[in-house]
Amino acid sequence: MSLLPVEDAIAAILRRVPAPQGESVPLAEAAGRVLLAPVLARHDQPPFAASAMDGYAVRAVDIVPGHSLRLIGTSQAGAGFSGPVGLGEAVRIFTGAPVPAGADAVIMQEDAVVEGDHVAFSSQPQPGRSVRARGNDFTTGQQLVEAGVRLTPMQLAVAAAANAASLAVSHRPKIALLATGDELELPGTALGPDQIIASNSFGLAPLLAPYAQTLTDHGIARDDRAQLRAKLQAIFAGEPDILITTGGASVGDHDIVQEILVELGVTLDFWRINMRPGKPLMFGTRGKTLVFGLPGNPVSAMVTAIVFIKPALRHWLGLTPQPSWQLPLAGPTPPNSARRHFMRAQLLQTPSGPQALPISQTDSGHTSSMAHADLLIVQPEQDPGQRAGAIVEAIVVDAF
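Now predict its structure.
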């Protein structure tokens, strides 16, 4: 079986991802969710002409050097002055308060001299000075936040100002994780002579949880057919939207995950990708469940999750594909093989801007190198190697 190109594998996965489904959530619970319907203003903002500072509301034409105006009242936020401002009159006003009818300018209090019930000014304003016109911020029906974005605190503040008590957001998938292998033990365990610590799920869970309604770690299944079958049957009974296994994705004598998944009704779309690390990536479906079988090597598991599962989750939520960065190299890259290489790299901030520093370690089981990996440099097939300063494509590891 030939190796599937990376782009073809991503396209095959995205064809299986369902269209985004919406749900309404209270505004206070919408942080980090993906907006499915745009936020539209339900009123003008401000809903009235408002003062931009503390001072005095006046008619600009009345401001004449050497003459004072009679103070007739006060306008403050939440309690505006009810009457009009007439010839030779002024109203004390505070920031955010309604500008009374008749007034067309606000003079800041630092430019005013008050004597009893009269006020004089050292500056002469033009009409509109320090007045926020009705609808200056936004108007009724205006789109304020477009659909297909992950809601940030700034956008939520705007939605609140637009009087949106709830928002339509994308329904998130339920994700199940399962590690496999006789050699695996949980962190904190005293290791035997043939054991290693299971680390994959502890990286994958926080990587994918921001996209998920729930993310359930089902622990470790041993390389025992009966146990693995029972574990997978129990997971499928819970009807997850996405199942992710790690380990056993190849076809060796002990790699039984793929075989049992097929026995349980999983239809495989592919299981070998033209890339490194992560060639033995498996993908298929069982009913509505998308099934990803990731390699057991820790670097391969994380890289394939970033390259394939994160785009699937973004598509699920209605997000556009995550853009890659174009960065200059801080050091050279070696020649590449016939498989696309997702090379670990550090993001360096230099006086001339950000740069990508390749990490020379390429072993797919070399976990310590991941601690320094901010980026994955996308090195094309048969790339001859690039010198320092060359512009390369890079994927940000920790981007949503």
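DSSP finds six helices and 26 strands in the chain.
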